[in-house]
Amino acid sequence: MHVSEGILSVPVLVAGGAVAAAGVAIGLRRIDDERIARVAVLASAFFVASLIHVPVGPSSAHLVLNGMMGVLLGWAAFPAVLVALLLQAVLFGFGGLTTLGVNVTVMAAPAVVCHYAFGWGVRRRGPRVAFLCGCGAGAGAILLSTLLLCVALVTTGREFVHVARLIVVAHVPVAVVEALVTGSLGAFLRKVKPELLSVHGEPETGHA
After folding, report:
1. What's the predicted TM-score (pTM) here?
2. Cys-Cys with 179: which of 27, 78, 125, 138 at CB 3.0–4.6 Å?
3. Which class would CATH give 10-197?
């Protein structure tokens, strides 16, 4: 899901950079001392998971875990994704520096959306609802990221329409896997360690 340099148009790069900068600024204000370690751990998990690429035509697919990051971090997913993608670009050449803003937006913005759409169920309900909402967050984040990536490509040029279609097909199974991973983790944490699901400024627990 990384966009390489030299593909996207300048307006798309500028727009992605602006959204990423705003998201990172908000995310940094939402990180308190108690959650720095959690942000670091999830950034590391994201870094490792998204390094494993499976080639699919002219693109590739990999786990992203942005749904899980959204549930556990909220807006802090933006700086976590930024750090991980910056290290990947510098150390391994994945993505690039000019496309960093777009890549951060593509992966972190859906995490925040799913945080508000599904995070309440994981944090405030019982394990069964937590599993279902976690599944929604895992799959929803991947599908939204895929949509944003396709919009960025098609906005750059109509010649990328075929590539966008391949990307959608490639990430459907990824969405299924991410749904199961995020749902299982959400249910597990809700049952044994609900305090880990707390997000800055929001209640940790609720009805069983």
Report:
1. 0.87
2. 138
3. mainly alpha
